[in-house]
Design goal:
The chain is α/β, with parallel strands linked by helices and 622 residues long. It has three domains: 16-157, no CATH class; 169-349, Endonuclease, Chain A; 391-622, 2-Layer Sandwich (Endonuclease, Chain A). Helices cover 36% and strands 18% of the residues. The chain is built from 23 helices and 24 strands. The longest helix is centred in the N-terminal third of the chain and has 17 residues, at 33-49. It is globular, with a radius of gyration of 29 Å.
Amino acid sequence: MSKTPRFDESRSTQPASLSREPQLWRGFGRSSAVFRAALVALLAAAFAAAGCGEDEPGEGVSSDGELDSVLPNGKADSPYSDCQLDAVLLLVNDPKVDADVLKAAGVHSRAVRNLMDRRAGKDLVAGTEDDTFFADLEAVDAVPYVGAAALSQLIAAAGEGCVGQVYPDYETIFSPQPYEVSHLAKARELIEGAKHSVDIAMYSFSDAKIRSALGDAVARGVKVRFLFDTANEDRKNPAGTGSAALEAVGVDVRYVNKIMHHKFLIVDGPQESPMQALTATLLSGSGNWSNSAGTRYDENTTRVSGSPELLLRFQAEFNRLWKNSRDFVSAPLVSFETMPIDPTRILDDPKVDAKFTSANFTTYVSSRNGPTFTVEAGRDEIADKLVELIDGAEVSIELASGHLRSRKVSEALLRKRVERKDLPIRIYLDGQEYISEGTQAVQEAELADCLVDAQTEKQNQDCLDKGYLYSFEMQRAGIELRFKHYAYRWHYAYAPQMHDKFLIVDHKVVASGSYNLSDNAEHGTMENSILYDASRFPVLVEGFVENFDSMWELARADETYEKLMAEIETGTGPIPIVYDAMSLTWAQVTALKEALRDHCSDLESDAFRTSPEKHYTCTRVP
């Protein structure tokens, strides 16, 4: 990495003493480069003679030349860790860190002046619109007199956030698991270790041990904020509700006017300084905080620390939701605000990213109801990213999702099958996504009628966005498709759901989070999807691949399906209509359902249809 001298009066690339005098350059064009270079040398010598360019007593000593590189041999031979280099970027971008702070920490004066001038932008006034963001180490390196010495001093100034830090540090918990090793136990453990803050955004929460851990955290001085979907309903009659129980132990509970479908926890997040992103912890995935999510359903939950981009993006998301939330008023709690985070000024790690459906919404304050999110037409933040990943697939695609109802994503998969017939595509869905050929014909006719009746572009789009199930179309197109199947008729009371929501592309990238594949998820709920690259998270990606393969083969080796079909066809007792879960193709589910209808006398009765949770077997036809 080497520097090239640049003379651009619109940026503070010259020594601070020169960049403050743009008048000196007026009247000289590019053809006067030799004269300008000579003038720079004369002025620099004059300032040096006057003592203006030297380091001040007591400050870090500079051995950096004007064009010295911070890493002369490049990152590959750097003596510093990725954590230390990220810490420098967080430090120099922190608006609370000024020249005095850096000087006091031992950074030499020339580097300090030029870094602060560059960050202040053309007007040299900090905190204005033209302030500059150091997006990467190259941007820091481009500043004159910021070389290897300055980098060493900046790393020392950044503190000890990287000491002993695994970078990144992560683990994924795949449900179902015994409670003691589930994502619920991990959430409780992280809360118990919190030192200053806990932020939670959650759809469903009923775990008593986590609630107790939150109360203990508040008691030891930890600030706890909880964005809770259920609070929207609880507020109507607060007494005895889960929201009221949280506020009773000092947890500040709020809700937004859209469905809060996130399932994430931030422990000791970057609330006061970007540097806290180095050591903060994120827990996020598909699993709610309920016993079923931990011990019965197929879920994934990942703990990550040592990933400042991820932590800053989730903290920025939480902050925006919190700022535009409505208070669940049950206990007189003192609210607090945290450091604002501009999402456009977050370090961009190309090996990890996070997308949020909140980007599809604008906000305003309703005179009647307060802060309000309203959908912005034409935006599909997460669906567009998933389509981009599918379009770019070269080796394989695996999708595990409780639902497949997103038109954009489904059409991308179908298009990929046409374009690349040799590309393996496997889709694993929950049993509730199965539809028969007859039902497919009905929904196709309903869509056609809707489009004919549509009078406006919005009505036309509403027809396309209506809850259309794509499983039949996938298998009809020749895409490998299986269902986690466990009952003739779906009901949440007994369903061991396949509740994952993840996409694997080429065994190199995983996209996973709370996001269901539907238009409602994109435009009616607050969701997230995290993109993990195998070059940064190899064990994580490998774990998702192995988990998908395991679900794909569920109960097939022991012939659970064949044994059930034999019992239906030749048995003598009641016939099970809720049974052990197994991975079945569309044809297998169709044959199983037909066999059950042929041999069960009450299966299509009103009692069985309206109250399926009361019926686990049916009477055999004589």
